[in-house]
Amino acid sequence: MQNLKSNNDFFKKDQKLFSIAFKTFFIVLILNIFFHFINIKHFIVDIILDNLIRISISFMIFLIPVFIFPKTRKFFYFMIYSLIAYSIYLSF
């Protein structure tokens, strides 16, 4: 029973991470569209918004298998963080 409770707690934490990434993606997407239409082309703003979009998409993509295969949670978290680091490295 204790193991089931701990898995349920992790599932709730993963759901929170997924919802945060999902909300961040749409907020940043709306901000990106807004800055595009008012013709503000600042290098730093573009980098920040593009990186936030990449980070939130990578979280959403790699958190889905965590829901399906909860035993592989550490591997997918490693994949998320390595993909984020790689995408930030490529943007510079």
Largest sheet: none
Shape: elongated
User: What is the number of independent domains?
Assistant: 1
Number of strands: 0
Measured on Cα atoms, how large is the radius of gyration? 16 Å
What is the first-to-last residue Cα distance? 48 Å
Q: Beta fraction of the residues? A: under 5%
Can you describe this structure?
- The chain contains three helices and no strands.
- With 92 residues, the chain is mainly α.
- It is elongated.
- 88% of the residues lie in helices and 0% in strands.
- It has one domain (2-91).
- Keywords: Membrane, Transmembrane, Transmembrane helix.
- The chain crosses the membrane at residues 20-40, 52-69, 75-91.
- This is Sensor histidine kinase.
What's the helix and strand layout?
Layout: H1 2-37, H2 43-68, H3 73-91
Helix pairs in contact: 1-2, 2-3
Offer a concise description of the structure.
This protein has 92 residues and is mostly helical. The protein has helices spanning 2-37, 43-68, 73-91. This is Sensor histidine kinase.
Entry keywords:
single chain, 92 residues, mainly alpha, 0% strand, elongated
